[in-house]
Structure formats: structure tokens, C-alpha cells
Write the C-alpha cells for this entry.
Amino acid sequence: MAGTAQLERIAFLGLGIMGGPMAANLVSAGFQVTVWNRTRERAEALVEEHGGDTRIAHTPAQAAASAQLVITMVPDAPQVEEVLFGPDGAAEGLSMIDLAVDMSTIAPTAVRRIADRLRSERGAAFLDAPVTGSRPKAKDGTLTIMVGGEAGDFERARPAFDAMGELVVHVGPQGHGAMVKLINNTLAAVNAAAVAEALVLAQRAGVDVDSLLHVAESGSGDSAMLRLKARPMLEHDLEPLFKLAHMLKDVRHCLEEARALGVGTPVAERAAELYAQADERGLGNADFAGIIEVAEGLRPANS
């Protein structure tokens, strides 16, 4: 793809909770989208629901063969590498002028490893462009997208980002998109755990929770997690908008990066322990609001 060519053809690989609606927004924006998913039924459902100029590929390589831009949206680095470099991987369809974008949340070290391999083996450029906003914002195209990589490659992919996101930020070089996302998700994880503890404490004290939320949302206790997750926590509505297992994975990645940089993160480490407990309880596939169930079983440290 020449640097000035209009972006028209996109391969989208991975149609999960986030990937499905993101691909649908690309279709709605008028792109020719070739989709691939490990479970073909999801690809068929997307084509049936959204139509447009959408095609289904049998393999990632087939999806990438005629695309100007290849997007991966899968759980973690091993899946990204499998989709790109495994048998019939998308890298087979990449050439010297193509661009791959990973919108999953993976470790910055993995980003740089994948970018180096694509560059050396295929001469292809790579951007790390994780997203935040959970499924509702994925559906209405208002995600926040943080992008790491070369500025020129960012501009080439910008029309696709604009179709999926409301706030699109080029945050710096390769791996910085992933680092910003991990830090952001760790902040969210810590905050959600604190919200869960506060709600349990209020209930045990007999406090009117609606009054608590009214005060907190009007003052210094307000936060996105309070507004987004307090009600689902109280109602134990754990339909997965963002899976708890994925949040735990992101926090662990953040801790690994922090350790490599010599940065202490005791608060994030405690949050990781709590989410691990929730995962062990079988809540990994539930929404991360499921951390409320751990908070309900906690006892004071000196008890």
C-alpha cells in the first residue's frame, strides 16, 4: 500500500466481545472488510447482521491477502503471534508495503518482538493500538484508542481508527500504546476493587447505598468505575462487558513491566491478588465487576 493510497480494504481477525462490534463499525463506515474468527459462526453472524461489503476468510492468510490493513483483536500475545505467524497466518499475506495493527492488550515487550519479526521477515510495519471503553463503546464507535509506532504508519491507519473510536491518540513509539493501556487498566482495576470494598462496607453498616452513591458521585470519591460498575456490583449483574480474566491478565502484564523498570507497585499487586481470587472462584469469564464477590468474603487483616 503506497503511503498516499486511500484506505479501503481491511482484514479484521478476531470477533470476540470487542472485536465483533469494532469490525461492524468498519463495515458501517464503508470499508471493505474481510473477517476471520476461530469460530466461524461469529463471522457468519456479523455478515448476516451488518452486510455491507463484508467477506469471510477461511484463514488469516486469506483475509490478509488482498487487504491494505490487517487488524488483530485477540486475548493476548500468544494468540496474536499464532494469528500472524502460525500455519496460514496473516503474515503470509503481508508484503513490503503492508501494515499490521494489533488492537489487543499485550505486553510492550511482546509488541516489540512481534514488530521486529514482521519487519525482518516480511518488511511490514506494525502498530500497537489497544482500546479502552468496554463493549458499549465498541458498539457505538466511541472507544479510546492509544497507538504506539511510527507517525506515518499511524496516519495511514487513522481512517480505520476514526471509524472505531472517539478519542484516538498517538502516544509515542512502538510499545507505548500497550504501556499506556496497561497502566490505564491497572488504575481501573484498583479503582473497581476499592468501589467493591466500599459498597460491601456500606451495606454491612446499614447505610443507604443510593445516598452513598449520590454523595460519592458528587464529590472527590467520584470515578468512572464508580459510575460504571457500582450498580452491576450491587445487582450482581456480571454479564461480561470486559472479562475479569482479561483484567487480571492486564494487571499482571503491568506488574511485569513495572518490575523490569524497578518500580514498586504494592497497590496494584494487592489488586492482582484480589482478581486472582475471583478468577479461582470461577469468575474469569464474568465481568470484572465480579470482584464484588471477593470483597463480600474478605475479613479484616487482624481478625
Strands lie at 9-13, 32-36, 54-56, 69-72, 99-102, 125-128, 131-132, 143-148, 165-172. Residues 34 and 55 are 5 Å apart (CA to CA).
